[in-house]
């Protein structure tokens, strides 16, 4: 007998760095396999799932811009990096029998559907996993902002922010052994204390529309399922 679910429609934000695993560049096949296996479990629960993927394992627009590249060009390169990650994850998911669609904010019709909100909703209603690529399609906006925007557009009940730590801390726990885990944080507190949750634009969007952000450790197998089943996992940023 299936456990009752806390959320029925969710948006999961995966960073590009997560695709690289312990490396700093590219896609680790073992990580891709683990992601697809966990998503399969969620899909089998009947959850409507959409994802926004980053591209930092290939290219980060802000970094290239700081080195002298035109920011708009650098950001468009970063958007294309997210498309590569989305296609890789799509292929891994479809090998497990999951029907998926990649919707890109940049038109690349040979490999992805153009993003249309109504089309995305229809795919979710049909039980497909939707992968949002190319961020918002606009320079100067991060994939965090894209995740907040897409979550609201599809009327997600929660934004799940996957990280490599157990939630929101008072400081970087990998650098500060005295950092404390905060189980619940207000939107304004996260902004005022500059906690490493998401960028300020993304948090502000979620605050304006009362969309909770749940920050959790993607490296712990089964965490997403535990969240959906109502277990106390990670940290919640909300009202």
Describe this structure as you would to a colleague.
It contains nine helices and eleven strands. It has 239 residues and is α/β, with parallel strands linked by helices. The chain has one domain: Carbamate kinase (3-Layer(aba) Sandwich). The protein is globular. The two termini are 33 Å apart.
The total of beta strands comes to: 11
**CATH classification class:** Alpha Beta
Stated plainly, the CATH topology is called Carbamate kinase
Overall pLDDT: 95
Strand content: 15-25%
CATH architecture field: 3-Layer(aba) Sandwich
Total domain modules: 1
SSE topology string: EHHEHHEEHEHEEEEHHEHE
Strand order of the largest sheet: 4-3-5-2-1-6-10-11-9
Shape: globular
CATH superfamily: Acetylglutamate kinase-like
Distance from N terminus to C terminus (CA atoms, Å) equals: 33 Å
Please outline the major beta sheet. 9 strands, mixed
**What value does the Rg take, in angstroms?**
17 Å
Give the helix level as a range of percent.
25-40%
Query: Are there runs of 5+ residues with pLDDT below 50, and where?
Result: none
Total count of helical runs of at least 4 residues? 9
List strands and helices in order, with pairings.
Blueprint: E1 9-14, H1 16-19, H2 29-44, E2 48-53, H3 61-66, H4 71-95, E3 100-104, E4 113-114, H5 117-125, E5 129-133, H6 143-153, E6 158-163, E7 168-169, E8 181-182, E9 184-186, H7 187-192, H8 200-208, E10 213-217, H9 223-228, E11 235-238
Parallel strand pairs: 1-2, 1-6, 2-5, 3-4, 3-5, 6-10, 9-11
Antiparallel strand pairs: 7-8, 10-11
Helix pairs in contact: 2-4, 6-8
């Amino acid at each position: 007998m299936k456990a009752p679910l806390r959320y029925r429609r969710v948006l999961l934000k995966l960073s590009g760095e997560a695709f690289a695993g312990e490396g700093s560049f590219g896609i680790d096949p073992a990580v891709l396999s683990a992601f697809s296996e966990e998503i399969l479990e969620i899909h089998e629960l009947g959850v409507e799932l959409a994802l926004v993927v980053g591209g930092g394992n290939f290219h980060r627009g802000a970094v290239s811009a700081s080195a002298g590249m035109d920011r708009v060009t650098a950001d468009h390169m970063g958007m294309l990096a997210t498309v590569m990650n989305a296609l890789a994850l799509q292929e891994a998911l479809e090998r497990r029998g999951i029907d998926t669609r990649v919707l890109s904010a940049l038109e690349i019709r040979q490999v992805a559907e153009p993003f249309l909100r109504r089309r995305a909703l229809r795919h979710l209603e049909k039980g497909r996993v939707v992968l949002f690529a190319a961020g918002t399609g606009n320079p100067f906006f991060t994939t965090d902002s894209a995740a907040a925007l897409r979550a609201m557009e599809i009327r997600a009940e929660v934004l799940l922010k996957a990280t490599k730590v157990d939630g929101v801390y008072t400081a970087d726990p990998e650098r500060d052994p005295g950092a404390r885990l905060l189980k619940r944080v207000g939107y304004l507190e996260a902004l005022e204390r500059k906690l490493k949750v998401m960028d300020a634009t993304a948090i502000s969007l979620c605050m304006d529309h009362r969309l909770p952000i749940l920050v959790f450790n993607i490296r712990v197998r089964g965490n997403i399922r535990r969240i959906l089943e109502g277990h106390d996992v990670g940290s919640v940023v909300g009202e």
